Amino acid sequence: MIEIKKMEHSDIAFAKYLTDIEQWGHLENDFRRLLHLDPNGCFVAWQDDNRVGTVTTVSYGDYAFLGNIIVKEEHRGGIVGPRLMQHAIGYLDEKGIKTIELDGVFSAIAMYRYIGFRDKYRSLRLFREPDRGFDAEYGTSCAASIDDLISFDHKQTGIERGGMLHNLLQEFPNHTFCVKEDRLQAYAIVRERATRTLAIGPLVAEGPNVCDILLSAILATFKNEYMTIGVPEINSAAIEIMLHKGFKRSPPSMRMYRGPRIDYERHVYGIISADVG
C-alpha cells in the first residue's frame, strides 16, 4: 500500500540520497530551505515502512513549481509517481494556485502530459570548465540591498519570488553579484553544489549587454571552478551569451505547465534551479 506523507526534516537525508543517485548536485540545505518556506508543501511516498519517492513544491503567489519528483528505481513504472504528483497538485489546488510548472526529464514527460501538463520549451543545462586565463574589467561587489534585489526581480519577471530570494540572498551574501549604476540593471547569485561545481542562478537582467557584463564578472571571480547554469530555450540572447563565454550544452529537460500559461522569461538569463524554477 502506498501512502503519501508530509516531508519532515527526518526525511531530508533520504531526499538527498535520491538526488545523489540522479547526480543533481543538491545539498541537504536545499530541502531545509523548501521546508522553511512551506512546511506542508513537500511529500514522501511510503510503502509499508519504506520511503520510496519524493516531490517538492514551492509557491510564488498564485504560481508554483514542482520539483524533486523522484521514485526509487525498483518502484518506477507503477503508481508511486502518479500518486505523488496527484497529491502535490491537489495540495497546490487547495492553496489557490493557478499555474503549476515543472522541469520534466524526458523519460517522464508522457506521465506529466497524461495528468494535464503541456510542453512549454526545453529547459537547457549548460556547463563550463575552469578557465584560469579569463578576466573582466567590471567589479564584483553588489551595493544593492536585499529589498532592492527582490523588487528588481519582481519587476523583471512579474513573479513573487521574494521568500525564496530572501533566503538565498541571506545564505550567499558573498556570492551575490549585480550591475548597478544609476539603477539596478542585473543581478545573479552563485551557489555551491554537491557535485563540486558552482551554479549560477538566478540571473536576471534588463538586457543582453548587462547580462554579458555581469556574467564576465562572475566567471572572472570563479575562474578556477566548474560552473553550471540553466537557461530557458526561448531566451535566445541568453544562449548566445553562454556559448560565447565557453559554456557547453548538457542534456536538457522540458519546462511544462498546468493551468494558464504565463510568460516571464524575457529577462531570465538563468533559472534558480530545475527544482524551484
From TrEMBL:
PROSITE patterns: GNAT (PS51186). Gene3D superfamilies: 3.40.630.30, 3.40.630.90. It comes from the Bacteria. This is N-acetyltransferase domain-containing protein. PANTHER family: BLL4206 PROTEIN, SLL0310 PROTEIN. It comes from candidate division WOR_3 bacterium SM1_77. Residues 2-132 form the N-acetyltransferase domain. One of its GO terms (molecular function) is acyltransferase activity, transferring groups other than amino-acyl groups.
